[in-house]
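[recover] target loaded
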């Protein structure tokens, strides 16, 4: 497979230095991507860069994932108007290990293939560098004029935010040295990243040229992903969409992709899946014939949830979606596991009842109007039931005096009471 051709049809190339394509066509090329270790999980904003590494490896090239332990201590000014919080070494090390575990699901680090991936941390070669050594050996090769000309610097000096500290100003030199170090230590000839990284990446190619007299270091960037409406990709009302199930459940992760717009789905399926062009073209054609079926979004959600989590978690997410929106919700509830149930109904008001009391049986009116106070009075609840407005475990309640017992529990512990179509309440038997 030709890497640049693959990137082009997927819409994943923004800028590329002259000679990059020729280098990649000539030989197995080592290329690196920098990852900011400010959290112990990647989020979907990182996925574009990770997919570039994945495609590089699929096309026979060798990826390096660089965790920016040193640069994370400084804070990259690119695209930022404020300085970021700095992290201590113990936190950075923890985050690095967690990120490697996530990347290992997507990229081969462990085989004996010549293009097996490598993970490095720039803190390892920066921690013993003295300030005097750095400004003598590296700083003298890059002029202040060159550094000031970068967009990321100009924006901050032109009044965006509160200016720029010397610490942040030196960021591009530290990142430039990373490229220089990897060029010498690993024969790394290409750095990839988002389009906001162009200035930092080309500082690296310039340092290699000036310090070593070599012209075979290259840069390739991908576009920054935005939604069709121009808003930021990867953010929801509750914040980032994380790859770690502790922060974003597989169900919520699946729902994120399922709910993207038609326009976004057409771009995202190229960028975030490994499906080939013919398959994607066919899917888009099918989608346009019957957009209401959302075939494109369903396939996108399937591919990416399976890739990041597992086929099993994908199946659970589909089943969980059926509980909220499907015709067989009551049946699905009978087999759902506790974790998935809680993911689906996260944030729903919860009430408690004694498990021993429920074992003996409690009538619906007493359960919901006395013991749990879901409804303000038995009279109101009785009227709602008579009007068909109350469900238990997704089944309509016809008799206000029906007895609810342990046999009704979901996952041996929960009851789901519904008022109308949208108001859900969970009763926990303890």
């Amino acid at each position: 497979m030709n890497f640049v051709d693959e990137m082009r049809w997927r819409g994943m190339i923004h800028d590329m230095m002259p000679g990059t394509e020729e280098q990649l066509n000539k030989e197995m090329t080592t290329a690196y991507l920098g990852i900011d270790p400010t959290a112990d999980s990647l989020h979907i904003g990182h996925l574009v860069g990770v997919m570039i590494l994945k495609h590089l490896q699929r096309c026979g090239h060798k990826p390096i994932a660089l965790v920016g332990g040193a640069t994370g201590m400084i804070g990259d000014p690119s695209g930022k108007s404020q300085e970021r919080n700095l992290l201590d070494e113990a936190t950075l090390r923890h985050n690095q290990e967690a990120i490697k575990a996530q990347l290992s699901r997507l990229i081969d680090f462990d085989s004996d293939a010549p293009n097996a991936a490598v993970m490095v941390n720039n803190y390892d070669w920066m921690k013993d560098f003295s300030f005097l050594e750095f400004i003598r050996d590296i700083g003298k090769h890059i002029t202040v004029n060159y550094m000031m000309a970068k967009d990321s610097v100009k924006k901050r000096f032109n009044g965006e935010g509160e200016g720029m500290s010397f610490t942040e100003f030196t960021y591009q030199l530290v990142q430039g040295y990373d490229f220089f170090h990897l060029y010498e230590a690993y024969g790394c000839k290409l750095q990839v990243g988002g389009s906001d990284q162009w200035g930092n990446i080309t500082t690296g190619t310039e340092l290699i040229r000036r310090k070593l007299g070599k012209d075979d270091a290259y840069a390739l960037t991908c576009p920054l992903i935005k939604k069709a409406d121009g808003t930021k990709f990867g953010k929801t009302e509750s914040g980032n969409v994380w790859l770690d199930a502790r922060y974003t459940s597989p169900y919520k992760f699946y729902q994120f992709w399922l709910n993207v717009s038609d326009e976004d789905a057409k771009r995202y399926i190229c960028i975030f899946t490994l499906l080939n062009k013919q398959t994607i073209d066919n899917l888009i054609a099918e989608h346009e014939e019957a957009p209401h079926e959302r075939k494109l979004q369903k396939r996108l959600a399937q591919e990416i949830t399976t890739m990041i989590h597992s086929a099993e978690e994908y199946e659970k997410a589909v089943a969980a979606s059926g509980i909220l929106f499907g015709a067989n919700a009551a049946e699905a509830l009978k087999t759902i596991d506790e974790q998935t149930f809680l993911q689906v109904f996260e944030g729903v008001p919860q009430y408690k009842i004694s498990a021993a009391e429920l074992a003996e049986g409690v009538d619906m009116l007493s359960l919901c109007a006395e013991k749990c106070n879901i409804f303000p009075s038995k009279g109101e609840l009785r009227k709602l039931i008579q009007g068909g407005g109350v469900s238990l475990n997704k089944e309509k309640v016809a008799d206000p005096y029906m007895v609810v017992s342990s046999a009704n529990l979901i996952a041996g512990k929960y009851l789901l009471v519904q008022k109308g179509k949208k108001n859900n309440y969970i009763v926990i038997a303890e």
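[recover] notes: The CA atoms of residues 32 and 64 lie 4 Å apart.
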